Amino acid sequence: MENRYESYAKIFKAFCDENRLQILELLRSGEKCACVLLEQLDLGQSGVSYHMKILVESGMVVSRQEGKWTHYKISEKGITSAVALLKMLSTPNTTILETKLANKSRLNDSF
């Protein structure tokens, strides 16, 4: 069973390769067939498949099969989750008490 940190790492791994960033850039204009990605990337079929597997497993991209080709698009839900995860991991923890004390301090400073 995958723990939460392994799940988090999958999301960040999707963004940690220049080929995957280029793929995400290409997908910004809409769904693309793997055949189109092959034409636009300096990768072979196995390279494209490898990177797409990582992007799909991370949840950043979704796929659908049409005949022998797979079509890919950016997952709005996945991207929203990635943004929320980055905010959660990079926002300092504050307790309710610390927040109340900070607000009280600001009120006192204004008088």
SSE diagram, text form:
Blueprint: H1 4-14, H2 18-27, E1 32-33, H3 34-40, H4 45-58, E2 61-66, E3 69-74, H5 76-90, H6 96-109
Antiparallel strand pairs: 1-3, 2-3
Helix pairs in contact: 1-4
Describe the structure.
64% of the residues lie in helices and 13% in strands. By secondary structure, it is of the alpha+beta class. A 3-stranded antiparallel β-sheet has the order 1-3-2. A hairpin with a 2-residue loop joins β2 and β3.
Going by helix content, strand content and strand pairing, the class is alpha+beta
Helix content: 55-70%
The largest sheet has its strands arranged as: 1-3-2
- How far is the first residue's CA from the last residue's CA? 55 Å
**Cα gyration radius (Å):** 20 Å
| Number of DSSP strand runs | 3
DSSP strand (E) fraction? 5-15%
Anisotropy-based shape: elongated
Overall pLDDT level: 86
User: Helix tally?
Assistant: 6
Regions with pLDDT < 50 over 5+ consecutive residues? Answer: none
Return the string of H and E elements.
HHEHHEEHH
Biggest sheet overview: 3 strands, antiparallel
Short description:
This protein is of the alpha+beta class. Helices cover 64% and strands 13% of the residues.
What labels would you give this structure?
111 residues, alpha+beta, 6 helices
